[in-house]
């Protein structure tokens, strides 16, 4: 099979470039792969290092003086190479491919991968959906849902989640972490209590990095002064730097520039965490039957292999009873069984300690909390929204809602500001 990959980014390319490089690594050994991207781009340089891949210097400008010659060049390439598939990544290269393929007797199949949450209802999208899209790849459920009521609604769609290579991005040792901090901050790296936040997403406005800077600037002074923000990517222009200065953060934001390997940036940063999923122990591979009568759509539950993969990735397994029941409405013996047997069952099957519990529906009482403590758990969560406080009962912890489409900056604001605490106080909880 012969595949053409296009990408419009002139410089960094961020996740688009990483995505295509990984596709090339998997496909190039068995298929003939060609990449068309600007010669100034990171993708152009990286793709040249992939065996059996040809790279073409191809622009994707919108100005008519450059656009027409670029489309002519791209059309000639498509005609000469007789591709089976063209894979496009964004509106700019999708537009060029559409125009270059107009009138071709045998047009290649065109696959469109969408990485972001930019709207898909414009006139340009209507044209591209009708004339130049045969299949769609969405990188998350949120992105997939964007296509439901769009011009692309009738086009077959596959959802392929982005993932993390946990070996390549393995946690850094304490020594390596300090070396990376020293390289970025110099002598200041030795300051006790310093908190490093970081991003390798670049400094384009849509990456949201300024929201992170703004969130840190709103912290209490003693916390703000402990924070440094590492922003890898193209250096910000004067307008962006003026925004940083206006927030009084110019001494606390470090711009190391564009880096090919982001691991040293990530290694220097402090904030890292695992996630906990609370599993209904009696129904792996089942569905949310307890929600159906409420009109909530059916949703599948993780099966045993998926739960094992979750644990193998370093994430925590918590318990959510055996059957997702209202504990306070059960006889004492059955409530105790739901709490204890779910813990024992998960530990037996998956070979990991289960110390976190979540009360289904937030339905609990002092007696239920005591049963949970006696069962050997170390903490349990409610459905109350808000930040946990140091004086909270570990078996009555509130939570902050993090939905599937929340961005990094909104997440940081929830965690680092008083917004969620004020919400809790307002409700008297």
What does this molecule look like?
The protein is an alpha/beta fold and 429 residues long. The protein contains 16 helices and 15 strands. Helix 2 links the parallel strand 2 and strand 3. Helix 3 crosses helix 4 (91-101) and helix 8 packs parallel to helix 15 (408-416).
β-strand amount: 15-25%
Q: How would you describe the shape?
A: globular
* SS-derived structural category: alpha/beta
Reported for the largest beta sheet, the result is: 7 strands, parallel
- Counting DSSP E segments of at least 2 residues, the number of strands comes to 15
Uncertain parts: none
Mean pLDDT, nearest integer?
90
In the CATH hierarchy, what is the superfamily of the largest domain?
Answer: Glycogen Phosphorylase B
Number of helices: 16
Within the CATH hierarchy, at the fold level, what is the topology of the largest domain?
A: Rossmann fold
Set out the fold topology:
Layout: E1 2-6, H1 14-27, E2 32-37, H2 42-47, E3 53-57, H3 64-81, E4 85-88, H4 91-101, E5 109-114, H5 123-131, E6 135-138, H6 141-146, E7 157-159, H7 174-185, E8 195-199, H8 209-217, H9 221-224, E9 227-232, H10 238-246, E10 253-257, H11 263-268, E11 276-279, H12 304-312, E12 316-319, H13 332-350, E13 356-358, H14 366-374, E14 379-385, E15 397-399, H15 408-416, H16 419-426
Helix pairs in contact: 3-4, 4-5, 8-15
For this entry, give a set of tags:
Rossmann fold; globular; TIM Barrel; single chain; 429 residues; 16% strand; alpha/beta; 16 helices; 7-stranded parallel sheet
